[in-house]
Design a protein that fits this description.
The complex is a heterodimer of chains A (158) and B (505).
Chain A: H1 10-20, H2 27-38, H3 45-53, H4 57-66, E1 78-83, H5 86-89, H6 93-104, E2 117-122, E3 134-136, E4 139-141, H7 146-156
Parallel strand pairs in A: 1-2
Antiparallel strand pairs in A: 1-3, 3-4
Helix pairs in contact in A: 1-2, 1-3, 3-4
Chain B: E1 2-4, H1 9-13, H2 16-30, E2 35-37, E3 51-55, E4 58-62, H3 70-74, H4 88-91, H5 109-114, H6 119-125, H7 129-139, H8 151-160, E5 167-172, H9 181-188, H10 190-204, E6 208-213, H11 218-233, E7 249-254, H12 264-271, E8 295-299, H13 300-312, H14 314-318, E9 321-322, E10 325-326, E11 328-335, E12 341-346, H15 351-358, E13 368-373, E14 380-382, H16 392-397, E15 406-411, H17 416-430, H18 436-453, H19 458-473, H20 477-481, H21 483-492, H22 494-504
Parallel strand pairs in B: 1-2, 5-6, 5-8, 6-7, 11-15
Antiparallel strand pairs in B: 1-3, 3-4, 9-10, 11-12, 13-14, 13-15
The chains are: A alpha+beta (158), B alpha/beta (505).
Chain lengths: 158, 505
């Protein structure tokens, strides 16, 4: 998942917004489209969205910051989501997560210094009968052990 | 020759895509005429990737299959599991909601119809709206999302409301750990959900449906979107459902990682493009729901069960079950288990049968310590209560809930104080912030459990009192039910809370 880190050009933003603004309750679809295009929700996008939807900037900011998915800064080149929920904990998920963070010297949500990998928590991927579970750049991985994780991290260039 | 290789996320997570490409490559090498069908999962996750070969001898299963096994598979040298229907885990089930899941190509409408699909909708289209609602009521179907509210009564309220626009909202924000049935049915039999929503629309006079799917389920989102496109092209959705004159269309909306949006009023706010803050009830969503209009909010499994109720009749469905828990429940067996997966059965099976006989105990081979039933807001049930039959009232009496029917098994290495702390910490992360008992209580809960862990005996009393406040004073189930896992851990596993005190002394 490689993203441009450049701030959003106004023209593209308006196109993304108008593509979705005709539907009912369009704010979440618009934010998803912007994050898919830019890798995050650029600060500059907030007033443009607010203007298009006749909302205040505070309302848009409130929505962006309420949901865990929306990032205010770009992530690393690869995003690894590790499940921290109960079913994965029952098969060693919590310890696996701690080892990954320790190996990379990160806290949850952190990005490696070389910008290769961001590690994020996720609460359930629906892979509860084959945990510990992870999602690497949108691709699901089950029964993750240390060897599997080492391979994932090496391939991601962490 | 047809070869079925699941496209289900759990099968993919265990290598199904790699197996599918190996089958394509090896079949080409051998000059074999093979049609690869990416079906849903049959629900036996420990056997995934479970490949079925359909040849002159019928359909027989192999699994788990690794890419390296594919040459032997195609050369007929791999040992077969036999027919899926004969595998004990599968043979003991009663599959109504999941009858087609894994059997058919999820995106073939003709396959769907050949296996009983659309029969329910066609029957419903010949009925008056009042008769449709009465049929659902007679089936005894209760909300499969967890609350267990009678689906027919909800539909009746919406049907009798007068408005220029009504909505059917499908809650596919399946955030509970240990549950994956919604994901499985959306990936394995999406048309059954579409058909169920169309019946709901015709029965209540709603013309628009939304499926709110969590962003953690990209595979389910892709399959549902593809199925909706097919349904539109074939006239199942649109200005006139199957030529009946009833308009009904639907679309997928994607969540954004907030657990609380699984709560129905929070979900409605999210669909409206707002923060997922819980709304006070009343007004009921059935009267003032999405954009203030009468709205049916039902779980995926409730809506996906509607077609079979209309296909086979309400009495057939109500003939299964126990007491007021009628029909079947797709139980998801997860966590530290030998045989995990989806097990659909009539209500009433004791927990011990599920955990010991069907799941085969723990994957680690160690003794079972506890099972959490009903997701992060469900109670931890000790082995001494394993005789509890699986039903709404039966679990309620034990201070628990069946929720979305996920059961997560833990072996004796589990530290129940740690699990109680996690429940409070999770509530703190996911609280929408509207009500104080949840927003502040969960943070204080973590601190209080840390005090117990540090050996403060007075903290147990405070934790109990705090849990009472959260249970009685929270606006929704997040703050209101977090005390279930916390208090059940404290009550049933006091040693895990006391051991630390002794160590500190």
């Amino acid at each position: 998942m490689s993203h441009s880190t450049a701030e959003a050009p106004q023209g593209d933003l308006s196109a993304l917004i108008s593509e979705h603004s005709g539907g009912e309750g369009p704010l979440l679809p618009i934010l998803h489209a912007i994050q898919a295009a830019y890798g995050h929700i650029p600060q500059a996008a907030i007033p443009v969205i607010a203007d298009a939807l006749n909302l205040t900037k505070a309302e848009v900011h409130g929505v962006v910051t309420f949901y865990h998915d929306f990032r205010e800064k770009p992530a690393g080149r690869h995003v690894i989501k590790l499940c921290r929920a109960e079913a994965c904990q029952s098969v060693g998920g919590a310890e696996l997560g701690e080892r990954v963070l320790a190996r990379l010297g990160l806290d949850w949500g952190g990005t490696t210094a070389n910008g290769a990998v961001t590690v994020e928590p996720v609460y359930c991927l629906g892979l509860c009968a084959c945990g510990p579970a992870a999602m690497v750049d949108g691709k699901v991985v089950g029964r993750v052990d240390d060897a599997r994780m080492a391979k994932i991290l090496t391939e991601a260039g962490a | 020759m047809k070869i079925y290789i699941p496209r289900d996320a759990a099968a993919k997570a265990l290598g199904a895509d790699e197996v599918a490409s190996a089958v394509a490559t090896e079949a080409a090498k051998r000059g074999l005429d093979v049609q690869i069908i990416r079906n849903g999962t049959r629900g036996m996750i420990w056997l995934e990737p479970l490949v079925e070969v359909d040849d002159a001898r019928g359909r027989h299963a192999f699994g788990p299959v690794a890419p390296a096994d594919v040459p032997a598979l195609l050369d007929g040298k791999l040992e077969s599991l036999g027919a899926v229907e004969d595998i004990p885990f599968f043979a003991r089930q009663t599959r109504l909601t999941f009858a087609r899941c894994g059997l058919i190509d999820p995106l073939s409408l003709s396959d769907y119809e050949a296996h009983g699909g659309l029969a329910g909708l066609r029957r419903a289209l010949g009925m008056a709206p009042g008769e449709i609602v009465a049929e659902v009521t007679a089936s005894g179907l209760r909300g499969r999302g967890g609350a267990g509210f009678p689906t027919g009564i909800k539909w009746k309220t919406v049907a009798e409301a007068t408005a220029d626009r009504k909505y059917i909202v499908c809650n596919a924000d399946e955030g509970d750990s240990g549950t994956f049935a919604d994901r499985m049915i959306m990936e394995g039999d999406p048309f059954t959900l579409i058909e169920g929503m169309a019946i709901a629309g015709v029965g209540t006079g709603a013309t628009k449906g939304y499926v709110y799917i969590r962003s953690e389920y990209p595979d389910a989102i892709a399959v549902m979107e593809a199925a909706i496109r097919i349904a539109r092209v074939s006239g199942l959705l649109g200005a006139s459902v199957l030529g009946s004159g009833h308009p009904f269309d639907m679309e997928v909306r994607v969540g954004a990682g907030a657990y609380v949006c699984g709560e129905e009023t929070s979900l409605l706010n999210s669909l409206e493009g707002k923060r997922g803050i819980v709304r006070a009830k009343p007004p009921l969503p059935a009267l003032e729901g999405l954009f203030g209009k009468p709205t049916v909010v039902n779980n995926v499994l409730s809506l996906a069960t509607v077609p079979v109720i209309f296909e086979k009749g309400a009495a057939h469905y109500a003939g299964f079950g126990l007491g007021r828990s009628k029909g079947t429940m797709p139980i998801q067996i997860a966590g530290n288990v030998k045989h995990g997966g989806l097990f659909e059965t009539a209500f009433g099976m004791p927990l011990s049968d599920l955990v010991i006989d069907i799941a085969g105990g723990t994957a680690s081979g160690r003794p079972v310590k506890a099972v959490q039933v009903g997701g992060p807001l469900g109670a931890y049930i000790p082995v001494s209560q394993f005789d509890t039959p699986f039903g709404y009232e039966e679990f309620d009496q034990k201070g628990g809930l069946i929720g979305h029917a996920g059961i997560v098994v833990f072996d004796d290495t589990a530290d129940m104080l740690k699990m109680a702390r996690f429940a409070m910490a999770f509530c703190a992360v996911e609280s929408c912030g509207k009500c104080t008992p949840c927003r502040i209580g969960s943070v204080r809960g973590v601190e209080t459990i840390d005090r117990i862990a540090a050996g403060d005996p007075a903290a147990t009393v405070i934790l109990t009192d705090l849990c009472d406040t959260m249970r009685d004073g929270s606006l929704c189930a997040l703050g209101g039910f977090t005390p279930f896992p916390v208090m059940s851990a404290l009550r049933h596993f006091p040693d895990d809370f006391a051991r630390r005190k002794e160590a500190a002394e």
